[in-house]
Design brief:
Chain B: It holds the Pfam family B12-binding_2. The structure holds two protein chains of two kinds. By secondary structure, chain A is α/β, with parallel strands linked by helices. Chain A is built from eleven helices and seven strands. In chain B, helix 2 runs antiparallel to helix 3, helix 3 runs antiparallel to helix 4 and helix 4 packs antiparallel against helix 5. A five-stranded parallel β-sheet of chain B has the order 2-1-3-4-5, with helices on both faces. Classes of the chains: A alpha/beta, B alpha/beta. Bound molecules: cobalamin. Cobalamin (B12) sits at the interface of chains B and A.
C-alpha cells in the first residue's frame, strides 16, 4: 500500500486494461477511482495517473494533461480528466475544452469530496483539509516539501493562521483516522472528522 | 560546506562580500546577512545602497530560481527571513538618512484566502525598493481595503489570491472602487500563482505581476506615469 502511494505521489500510474474510456487522473485519486470502479463494475474505465506531487507545482498540470491526452486520444473512444481546477486558474479547463475532453468540475478535490455545493456553502476558512490520500501521504506531500522536517521553526509561518484540521474521510478506516488525528496534534490544530465518502466523484465517473 | 565555514566576511573586499552575501541569502543564513550588513555600513556604505545592492539584489536571484522551479517554498521563506534580519538593521538608518520614498502601497490577501507567503514577499521587496508598505494581512473584505487606502493616502492597492475560489473577489473590490468614483485614484496590482495576465485585464486591474521583482518594476513604472500625468495635468 505505502509503496503504491509513494509511486502515486512522485511518478503516477501507467494505463492498463482494455477499456474504451481513459481516465486521466491525479495520483491522489487513484485509490478512490479504483474502489469506485470495482464497486460499480465500471470495466470500461482505464486509469492513468499523473504524479500527485504536481499539486505543489500547478503550472505543470495543464501541459502534462495536454501531453497525455495527445498520446492516448487515438487509443480510446473518450478521455475524461479527473482533475478539478487545482490552482491552474482556469487554464486546465480551457485546455480541456480546446481538446474536446471533459473534466470534473470544482476548484479542488477537497471541494468535490465534500460536494461542490456543500463546499461553497461551508465556512472553513481557517481549516486545513486532509483526504484519505493526504492523511497517508502527509509527510511526502506536505511536511517534507514545505521543509518542516528540516526547519520545524517554519510551522508557524505556514500554519499560524489555521485553527483546525478537517479530515474529509472517503472511507471508514480507524487506523487512518487515528493517523489524521495525530497529524492535527503535531500541528497544534483542532481535529475534526468529517465523513464525506466520494462526494461528486461518484456521479462524475458514472457519466465518464 | 566546510569551505564556507572558513570565510571571514570582514576580510573580503566589497565586491566579494556582496557576492558572498548573495550566497548566504540564498542559503537563508540570517546571522551572516546581519553581519554583512553591519560590515558594509561600517565601511561607509549608504544604508539604501546596502539594501538595494546586497539584499534586494540577492533576493531577486532567489525569486528567479523559485519561478524557474529550482527552489521551493521553504528556501524562499528562509531567504526572506535572512533578508528581514538585514532590513531590521537598515530600517532605522534609512529613516535617519531620509532615503527616497517612491510611493505608498496597501497590500493584503483577499477575503476567504489565508495564503500569505507571496504577499509578504512582495511587501518586503516593495519596501526594499523604497516603497512604504501597509500590510493588511489575510482575509480582507472590500471595506477594509478601501478604508486603508483612504486612511493611508496610498498610491497603490495590491491584492493577492492563491485560490481559484477567492480570485474573483478582486473584481468585487475593483468594482466597488469604480462605484465610489475612486478607481482612478489608485494603481491596482494583483498577483498570486493561479492568476494570469488575462485575468488581471478582465477584472480591471492595472497590472498582473507574476512575481515580486515584476511587482516592483511595474509599481515604479506606474508611479512615474502617475507623476507625469499629475505634472501635465
Ligand atoms: C504553500 C502553500 C500552502 C500553505 C500556505 C501557507 C501560508 N501561510 O501562506 C498551506 C500548506 C498552509 C496551504 C493551505 C492550503 N492550500 Co495551498 N498552496 C501552497 C503552495 C504549495 C505554494 C504557495 C506559496 O506560498 N508560494 C510561494 C510564493 C512565494 O509564491 P506566490 O504565492 O505565487 O507569490 C508570488 C507571485 O504569485 C506574486 N504575488 C503573490 N501575491 C501577490 C500580490 C500582488 C499585489 C502582486 C503584485 C504579486 C503577488 O509574487 C509572489 C512572490 O514572487 C500552492 C501551490 C503553488 N505552487 O502555488 C498551494 C495552493 C495554492 N493551495 C491550494 C489549496 C487547495 C490549499 C488548501 C485548501 C489545502 C488544504 N488541504 O486545506 C489550504 C487553503 C486554506 C485557505 N482557507 O486558504 C491549491 C489551490 C487550488 C485552487 N483550485 O485554488 C494550490 C494551488 C495547490 C494545489 N494545486 O492544490 N497552502
Amino acid at each position: 500500500m505505502s509503496d503504491l502511494d509513494a509511486q502515486l505521489t512522485d511518478a503516477g500510474l501507467q494505463p492498463s486494461g482494455g477499456g474504451k474510456v481513459l481516465l486521466l487522473a491525479c495520483g491522489a485519486l487513484a485509490h478512490e477511482i479504483l474502489a469506485l470502479r470495482a464497486a460499480n463494475g465500471w470495466d470500461h474505465l482505464d486509469l492513468q495517473c499523473l504524479p500527485a506531487i504536481y499539486h505543489n507545482h500547478p503550472e505543470r498540470i495543464t501541459p502534462a494533461i495536454s501531453a497525455a491526452v495527445a498520446a492516448h486520444k487515438d487509443s480510446y473512444q473518450r478521455i475524461f480528466v479527473v482533475y478539478a481546477d487545482c490552482g491552474t486558474g482556469g487554464l486546465l479547463q480551457a485546455a480541456c475544452a480546446e481538446m474536446g475532453v471533459e473534466m470534473i468540475s470544482g476548484p479542488h478535490c477537497y471541494s468535490f469530496f465534500m460536494g461542490n455545493e456543500a463546499f461553497a456553502a461551508a465556512d472553513d476558512m481557517t481549516a486545513f483539509y486532509l483526504t484519505d490520500f493526504l492523511a497517508r501521504q502527509f509527510d511526502a506531500f506536505v511536511w517534507r516539501p514545505l521543509g518542516l522536517d528540516r526547519h520545524p521553526q517554519l510551522l508557524d509561518t505556514y500554519f499560524g493562521n489555521y485553527t483546525s484540521l478537517i479530515y474529509l474521510a472517503q472511507t471508514d478506516d480507524a487506523a487512518l483516522t487515528e493517523k489524521a488525528r495525530q497529524i492535527a496534534a503535531r500541528m497544534g490544530l483542532t481535529f475534526i472528522h468529517r465523513r464525506t465518502g466520494y462526494g461528486d466523484l461518484t456521479s462524475a465517473l458514472a457519466q465518464a | 560546506m566546510s569551505d564556507d565555514d572558513e570565510i571571514i566576511l570582514a576580510d573580503l573586499n566589497d565586491e566579494d562580500l556582496v557576492a558572498q552575501m548573495f550566497d548566504d541569502l540564498y542559503d537563508g543564513m540570517k546571522e551572516e546577512i546581519e553581519e554583512g550588513v553591519n560590515i558594509l555600513i561600517g565601511r561607509g556604505w549608504e544604508p539604501y545602497r546596502v539594501l538595494t545592492e546586497a539584499l534586494v539584489g540577492g533576493m531577486t536571484i532567489v525569486g528567479a530560481d523559485f519561478r524557474d522551479g529550482i527552489l521551493f517554498v521553504p528556501e524562499v521563506l528562509l531567504a526572506a527571513n535572512a533578508m528581514k534580519g538585514g532590513m531590521a538593521i537598515l530600517k532605522p538608518l534609512l529613516a535617519e538618512t531620509g532615503a527616497p520614498t517612491i510611493g505608498k502601497m496597501v497590500i493584503g490577501t483577499v477575503k476567504g484566502d489565508i495564503h500569505d507567503i507571496g504577499k509578504n514577499l512582495v511587501g518586503m521587496m516593495m519596501e526594499g525598493a523604497g516603497f512604504e508598505v501597509v500590510d493588511l494581512g489575510i482575509n480582507n473584505a472590500v471595506d477594509g481595503y478601501i478604508d486603508a487606502l483612504i486612511a493611508e493616502k496610498a498610491d497603490i492597492l495590491g491584492m493577492s489570491a492563491l485560490l481559484t475560489t477567492t480570485m474573483p473577489y478582486m473584481k468585487v473590490v475593483i468594482d466597488t472602487l469604480i462605484e465610489k468614483g475612486m478607481r482612478e485614484d489608485y494603481i491596482v496590482l494583483v498577483g498570486g500563482a493561479p492568476l494570469n495576465e488575462e485575468f488581471g485585464k478582465a477584472i480591471g486591474a492595472d497590472a498582473y505581476c507574476r512575481d515580486a521583482a515584476v511587482a516592483v518594476e511595474t509599481a515604479k513604472t506606474w508611479m512615474a506615469r502617475k507623476h507625469n500625468r499629475a505634472s501635465a495635468g
